[in-house]
Write a sequence for this structure.
């Protein structure tokens, strides 16, 4: 089976995914939509897409089967609901939404329509999360009682340019986007390995002090002046999760944006920018090589001759040795990848779910558990760290429910 897809927002990020969707053998047609027609036309030319459409509304009125949404992060919730109600399966970039009500409406609409919804959370396939998920499933941690997930991305390392690219002359109004409303790269990496969910949170926000008009309440469309925030979550299994969302930090986020730590009763796992270790009660094991990703290498690149055979598939597609490349389509070999090897898996998850009528791993209910804790954490920070409860929408329905 195959299906047709429209990609909404084909700038720097969306265009890359349009290319992967176009390569996937489970997708029959890919068209581009962007509020700037010249970007849609450029994406069509660059990635050999099948066409463009003038607007999101035109796309929903067309016969395409699915849409992939890569618009500004605060716009996702309403667009997702509109697409589902138009009968389209939906892939959405993160975050799922920016309010609890938007999340509730997406889940309600997915349940009513029976359509596929997937959130493209990259940390679910971060090599650290994949490794921790495997170790936890094997029981090697013992009981995980504490975990950390940090999204450490300094404004000076690419965010100014990204907001200027997407925001135009008034980019400072949106560059103040509250850090905890973009929580999934931190939370998803922990909860993607540990089958639990957050039930309460206390969060402290750090007010920005750089006089450049960003994170200035008088400028911000979000009335936000927090550039960094730290949240402590209680999980439903009695464990503790801490996350940091940092936008002003002396840290090489271009090397590793998301980093994780898991502490269990029998073993633990920790990451720094360039080192990852597994520790038990006897020793420390450097596992950095298992989690290392490199840029994709074209199949005809002569440097592949120097790569060990057991690592060749990973290096061809920008994966880490801990990733299972055997499930990916042959068409992805040598294709671009991104965010620590996650992009190809996310595309394949969505295509497989649509064509098989199954739930993707990061479905609406999982996406809510990755997203809503950050929304409540931001509210806690606005209330001076008050501990607040976090609603849970439950597990995804099974075939019998």
């Amino acid at each position: 089976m195959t299906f047709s897809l429209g990609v909404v927002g084909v700038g720097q990020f969306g265009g890359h995914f349009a290319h992967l969707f176009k390569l996937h053998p489970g997708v029959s047609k890919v068209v581009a939509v962007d509020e700037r027609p010249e970007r849609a036309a450029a994406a069509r030319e660059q990635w050999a897409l099948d066409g463009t459409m003038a607007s999101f509304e035109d796309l929903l009125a067309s016969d395409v089967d699915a849409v992939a949404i890569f618009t500004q992060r605060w716009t996702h919730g309403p667009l997702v609901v509109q697409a589902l109600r138009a009968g389209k399966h939906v892939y959405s970039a993160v975050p799922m939404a920016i309010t609890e009500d938007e999340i509730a409406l997406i889940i309600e609409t997915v349940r009513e329509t029976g359509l596929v919804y997937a959130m493209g959370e990259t940390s679910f396939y971060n090599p650290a999360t994949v490794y921790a998920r495997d170790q936890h499933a094997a029981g090697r941690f013992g009981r995980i009682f504490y975990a950390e997930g940090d999204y450490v991305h300094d404004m000076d390392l690419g965010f100014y340019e990204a907001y200027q690219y997407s925001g135009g002359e008034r980019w400072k109004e949106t560059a103040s986007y509250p850090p905890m409303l973009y929580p999934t790269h931190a939370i998803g990496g922990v909860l993607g390995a540990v089958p639990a969910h957050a039930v309460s949170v206390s969060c402290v926000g750090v007010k920005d002090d750089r006089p450049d008009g960003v994170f200035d309440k008088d400028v911000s469309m979000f009335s936000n002046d927090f550039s960094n925030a730290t949240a402590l979550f209680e999980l439903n299994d009695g464990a503790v999760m801490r996350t940091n969302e940092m936008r002003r930090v002396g840290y090489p986020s271009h090397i590793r944006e998301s980093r994780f730590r898991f502490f269990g009763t029998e073993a633990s796992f920790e990451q720094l920018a360039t080192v990852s270790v597994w520790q038990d009660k006897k020793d420390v094991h450097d596992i950095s090589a298992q989690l290392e990703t490199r840029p994709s290498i074209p199949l005809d690149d002569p440097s592949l001759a120097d790569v060990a055979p057991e690592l060749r598939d990973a290096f061809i597609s920008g994966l880490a040795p801990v990733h299972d490349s055997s499930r990916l389509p042959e068409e992805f070999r040598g294709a671009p990848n991104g965010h620590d090897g996650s992009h190809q898996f996310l595309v394949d998850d969505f295509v497989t779910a649509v064509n098989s009528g199954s739930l993707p791993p990061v479905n609406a209910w999982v996406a809510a558990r990755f997203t809503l804790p950050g929304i409540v954490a931001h509210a806690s920070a606005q209330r001076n760290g008050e501990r607040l409860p976090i609603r849970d929408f439950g597990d995804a329905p099974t075939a019998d429910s």
Summary: The radius of gyration is 21 Å. The chain has a mean pLDDT of 95.
